[in-house]
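Lab notebook: predicted structure, single chain.

Context: the supervisor wants predicted structures on file for every construct in the current expression panel, including those that have not yet been purified. This is the next one on the list. No modifications to the sequence; it matches the entry in the shared construct table.
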Amino acid sequence: MQRGNSILIVLITVLLFCSQTRVSGQAEIQKDVRVVKPYTPTLSDASKISLLPVFNDTIRVTPDFGYVIFPQRFETDYKINPIKPAKMVGMPIPKLYKSQLTLGAGNYKTPYMELSINQLRAKTTQLGFYFNHQSSTGRIKLEKDRKVNAGYNDNLMKLYGKKIFKSSVLEADVYGGLNSADYYGVAVDTILERKKNMQRILSAGAGLKYYSAHSDSSHLNYKTGLDYGLVNDFYKNTGHIVDFSTEMNKRINDQVLGGDLRIRYFSQTGNLDTTNYTVVDVNPWYAKNTDEWKFLVGLNLNVDQSGEGKVSVFPRAGFEFNIVPKVLIPYLGIDGYREINNYGKILFENVYLTPGTAISNSNHTMIVFAGLKGRYSNKMAFNLKGSFEKIDSMYFFRNDSSNVLRHTFVADYDNATVMSLSAEVSWHQSEKLEFLLKANYYEYQLANLVHPWHRPAFEASLATDYNLREKILVGMDVFYTGKRYAPGTMGVVNELNGYPDINLSLEYRYTKTMAFFLKLNNLTASRYQVWNQYPSQRIQFLAGFSYAL
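Prediction complete. Output recorded below exactly as produced.
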C-alpha cells in the first residue's frame, strides 16, 4: 500500500512540473520533492433513512370467534404406595433393683442401717419390705460439766403390698416399731441407773385400704380404709386405736358432691389413766368450679364420747378466683375441727412425756384464713397466707413439778387465740437445682398462761438440692427457731434462746449400684434446747455407703 502511494505522488509531481514548463517555458525546473505526510484514506458515515413505512387502511375488521368444548374424562394411571406406620418410641424405662442396703456410722456412737426390698415391675401387684435403724449411746455435757447418757434407739419395720384391679386398688400394710430414749435432762446433780431412767415404746399396727381408680372423673370416686394401731411403753401403759374411714364424691359437669365419714375407737390402760371412748366425724360438702373461680361449702360434724360426750358443729367454706390464671390467685375460707390427742400421738410428739399422762382433746372452734398464691414465672411459685384461729383447751408442755428431777413433761391447758402469717416460695431453676423457703410467724393471746410454753413465735427454713450430672448430689437444710419460754422453779420463767440449725448432705454415685454419702448436722455446733433441760448434741456426722442389688 505504501509503494502505491509513492508512485501516485511521483506522477502528481511530474504533471505539476510539466504545467510549469508550459507556462514559463524558460523557467528553471525544481528537482526537490517534499512530502508533508503519508496519505490516509477515510470513509464518511452513511446517511440512513429513519422513517418507518406507514400503511393507511380504511377497512376495519372485528374478529368474531366461536368454539365448542367437548368434555372428556382423562384417565390417569397412578399407583398407591403403602406408607409404613409411625412407631411411638417411649421413654427408656430405668432398670429397677430388687433391694438396696445402706450402712453408716457417726460420732456419738451412732450406727445406721436401712434396707429396702421391692418386687420388680408387675402390672397388677406390688410388694415391698422396709427396715430402718439408727441409735446413739453417746454422752452430753450439762451444766457444771456433768456428763450424762443421752442415747436413743429408733427402729421401724414395714411390710406392704398393693393389688391393682381394672378400676380399683387394694392396699395393705403391717408395721412394727421400737423406740427408746434416755431421760437425760435432769435438773439436779445425781447418778441414775440407765435402765430405770429411760422410755421405751413398742408400736405395731396394720392397715387396709380400697379405693377407686377411674380414668373418667364422672364416675363415683370412693376410698375406704380400716386401720389398727397399738402403743405400749416401758411403764406398761397401753393404747389401742381402731380407725374406720370412707370418702365418696361424684362429679356432675362442673359440680362435685361429696361426703366423708370417720369412726375411731380409743382405749387406754395404764397406771395413771384408763379410758375408752369413740369419736365420730361426718363431713358433707359441695363444690363447684369454673375457669375463673371455684368454691366449697360444707360442715364438720363431730361427736366425741370422751368426758361428757360433746357434739360440735363447725362450718366449712372456701373460695378462690383467678385474677390471672395460674399466676395470681387470691383465696379465703373458714374451717374448724376437733383435735383428738390420744396417748400414742402425744408420746411420739414428746418422748419425755410423764408415762401414762393423758392429754385432753382440743376444739379448734373457728379458723378464718385468706391468702394469695400463684406463679411469678415458670421457675418461681409462692403462697402467702394469714389466719385467725380460736382454740379451746390448747395444750402446752411444761416440766413435771411433781418429779424432783423435773426431767419429764405434763400438759398445761388454756383457751387461746392464735394469729399467724406464713409464706412459702419455691424456685425451680432446673432439674438440677431447686430451692424452697418457708417462714411462719405466730402471735398467741392466752386466757391464763403467761407464755405459750415451748412454742416459738417465729420459724423459718431453707432447703436446697443440687444434682451435678447425676454423679454428685448436694443437699442443704437451714432451720431457724425463735426463742421460747418454759416455766421454771419458784415461779421463774426460763427463756430458751432461738437457734439456727444447718444440715448438709453429700452423695457420690460411684456406679449405678453403689454410692457413698456424708451427712453433717448442727454445723453451727450450738447446744440448743429442743425441750427445757434437754440440750442437743453438737456437730454430728454420719458417713457410709449404699448398694443396690
